[in-house]
Amino acid sequence: MAATTAQPMGSLPSGLEICTTAPDIFYLPELVFGGLVWILVASTHVNPPNPLGWVMFVSVFCFVLTFLWVIIFVAGAHKNSSGWAAADFAYHGLAAFFYLSAGVALAFITMDKKGGELKIYQIDIAAVVFAFVATLLYFIHAVLSAIRWKNF
C-alpha cells in the first residue's frame, strides 16, 4: 500500500506542508501575481489618482496579509483550530472581492488611456490581466478554504 501525504480531516497544514496541500498551494501564485499588479501599477503615471490608489491599496494590502498568512501557517501558529479555517476562508473571500473591484477599476481606467502612450497602455493592460488572474487565484483559494472549513 502506498503512503499518502494527504491531510487528515480537521487539520490545517503547517511547515512546508503548505506547499503540497490545496488550497494552500495557491499562496505562492497569489504573492507573485499580486506583486506583479503592485509593480506594474506603481511603474506608470498615476492618473487618475483615486481609482489607481485603490488598486495600489488592494495589491499592497493583499500582498502583505498573504505573506503574513504564509508565515503563520509555516510557523504552525494556527494550532489547527476551526477559527483559523474560518479566518482563512474569510480573508481569501475578501481578497477576491477586493481584487475584483480593483481589476474592474483598472480595466476602466486602461480603456480610457487607449489613445495615450503605447508603453504605459501595454503596462496597464498587463496589470489588468494580472489583477484578474489574482482575483481568480484568491477566489479558488476561498472556495477550497470554505470546503476545508466545512469539513473541519
UniProtKB/TrEMBL annotation:
Domain MARVEL: 18-150
Transmembrane segments: 25-42, 54-77, 89-111, 123-147
Stored Pfam families: MARVEL
Keywords, comma-separated and alphabetical: Membrane, Transmembrane, Transmembrane helix
GO cellular component: membrane
Matching PANTHER family: MAL-LIKE PROTEIN-RELATED, MARVEL-CONTAINING POTENTIAL LIPID RAFT-ASSOCIATED PROTEIN
Record-given protein name: MARVEL domain-containing protein
Organism (species): Echeneis naucrates
